[in-house]
């Protein structure tokens, strides 16, 4: 998977994620340009020598001329508007995105009739900071980069061949992930949203709630707070509008996961308030779950090699080859990464 | 506050905390010896040149001869037994401890009639690992080290002078904290237990529960888990028996704090499952709480000096001077640190 598979890349939205992708591509001397709504952030990027503009229509016409891969990196609330502009100015470009929920984006993509030109994406990396000023090179190194393939799965399930243009786009998106140092993990839209509700959106809800409970303890609690508190609240530093965007647009998947979590706490509350307080069940099953998740990381911790080995099983896939969509489904079940060739 | 105030130190229990204290004192060439139940850990410590034994009675007789400061660093469940041995073999030594709950320890101390020889302690530092093998020099650097003073507050409240022997012991415990690089934070037993329920025990309950919810998501969720999940679950790696010990012995303070946390989640669940899902209130108040807690850290983040400035307000106190117990109460209200002179 080399950058030879990558056309010029047009990034719409240069916040933490979009900006970091631009830095990574630019550092590899790949052809990248972009659009940002904020004039001050755009000027800051221009001063660093990046090829960016505040004119969306103009940027999209340029993308159309260059047959660029368009990366939608705006907040969820702006995706509909950006897709409308793409449908108008660059309807034949391949499109991907980096939004942290996939079903709401896919619904909008379909409503604009762009699904044959779309492969969803979600790099699982970030910091508690946001905006161009927070972007940095190398942010995605070794991170998972979810890549959706529902369009191909739907066609394949109906016995319809997947168009070559879509397979090519899938390769491009996997290549984009790869050149930033990330690992492409194929996943369906719905399984993605359920998984990130568990491992990303729930932790955000927890961080906000725990920050409030800690703050209720006043200066003494703040003074005594150590690693466990800091680790669990760090992401409460995130701009609340971004947290709302993630959680609200993924509420359908998040609510049942939140219910699972609340049920565990309610059980713990019951055993802790018994005459003989006990946390036996939660502490033991929690630790087993933690160890099991770590064990799946396999070589990552055990390797003595200075070269870190990815913990994710890899499957090499040739998009368009017979059975390739079935292969993606197998990798998804393993949480594995795909290498296209 | 120099190590001149410190008599020989006798550490009972050489796990992560007791072992790390031994390493710190030893590195400063202070007189330190100790006891550990485990023969293999004791041998490991001996091989590193530490003065440790598996004979508790013998170690305590030595402590009595040397008028040592005894540090109880065994798990909560073993504290009663250790106090009984101290009452038998070293009843005149000063005693402190490093157990993560203070009321259950203080109750046991009183039941052995040792309260005039006891100043409770709790260094707010640790890792997810345990045992001598996990101990390390410098673990407490810049950490808060809670130091209790209920005995003095009770006497002072009743208009009874605090015995000089107790004031001297208080100085010794603050000095112990100081020589490990920690900051002594005076706190009453009950306010300590309430604060650590918020900032330590609740995060442990959260980590266990979140690990289970993440694990339910299978390999895909594990593959997609990034910083927010890892930060919030890290302490689920802790030995479950230690987590049980902390949470079960502090259940009285932990249950109401858990109720506060559950109530926030139940509210969030309600607004997220509305027709128009919203996390506005939680995201905004959580972020405000986080920022407020950070703002209290004052100079810590803003200082441009290469010498880090402590975020905790400092008050210099001369134990035994008129009004000194009242000073401790003022520092406690600020979550500040005490410097004895």
TrEMBL record, chains A, B:
The keyword Iron does not apply. Pfam families: PDH_C, PDH_N. InterPro entries: 6-PGluconate_DH-like_C_sf, NAD(P)-bd_dom_sf, PDH_C, PDH_N, Preph/Arog_dehydrog, Prephen_DH. Transmembrane segments: none annotated. Keywords: Oxidoreductase. One of its GO terms (biological process) is tyrosine biosynthetic process. The keyword Oxidoreductase applies. Residues 7-304 form the Prephenate/arogenate dehydrogenase domain. One of its GO terms (molecular function) is prephenate dehydrogenase (NADP+) activity. Belongs to the prephenate/arogenate dehydrogenase family. NCBIfam families: PRK06545.1-6. This is Prephenate dehydrogenase. It comes from Corynebacterium mycetoides.
């Amino acid at each position: 998977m080399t950058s030879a598979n990558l056309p010029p890349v047009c990034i719409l939205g240069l916040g933490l994620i979009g900006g970091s992708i631009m830095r990574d591509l630019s550092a590899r001397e790949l052809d990248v340009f972009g659009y940002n709504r904020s004039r001050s952030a755009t000027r800051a990027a221009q001063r660093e020598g990046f090829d960016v503009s505040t004119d969306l229509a103009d940027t999209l016409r340029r993308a159309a001329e260059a047959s660029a891969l368009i990366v939608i990196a705006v907040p969820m609330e702006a995706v509909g508007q950006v897709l409308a502009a793409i449908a108008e100015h660059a309807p034949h470009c391949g499109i991907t995105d980096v939004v942290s929920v996939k079903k709401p984006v896919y619904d909008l993509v379909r409503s604009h009739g762009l699904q044959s030109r779309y492969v969803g994406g979600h790099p699982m990396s970030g910091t508690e900071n946001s905006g161009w000023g927070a972007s940095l090179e190398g942010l995605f190194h070794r991170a998972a980069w979810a890549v959706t393939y529902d369009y191909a799965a739907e066609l394949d399930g109906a016995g319809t061949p997947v168009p070559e243009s879509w397979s090519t786009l899938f390769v491009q998106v996997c290549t984009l992930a790869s050149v930033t140092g990330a690992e492409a993990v194929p996943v369906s839209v719905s399984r993605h949203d359920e998984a990130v509700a568990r491992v990303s959106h729930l932790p955000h809800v927890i961080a906000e709630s725990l920050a409030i409970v800690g703050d209720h303890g006043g200066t003494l609690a703040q003074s005594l707070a150590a690693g466990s508190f800091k680790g669990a609240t760090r992401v409460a530093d995130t701009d609340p509008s971004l947290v709302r965007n993630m959680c609200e647009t993924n509420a359908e998947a998040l609510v049942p996961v939140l219910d699972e979590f609340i049920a565990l706490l309610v059980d713990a509350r019951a055993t802790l308030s018994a005459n003989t307080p006990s946390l036996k069940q939660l502490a033991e099953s929690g630790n087993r779950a933690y160890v099991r998740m770590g064990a799946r990381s396999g070589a990552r911790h055990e390797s003595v090699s200075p070269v870190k080995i990815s913990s994710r099983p890899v499957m090499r896939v040739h998009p368009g080859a017979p059975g390739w969509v079935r292969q993606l489904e197998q990798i998804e079940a393993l949480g594995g990464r795909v290498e296209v060739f």
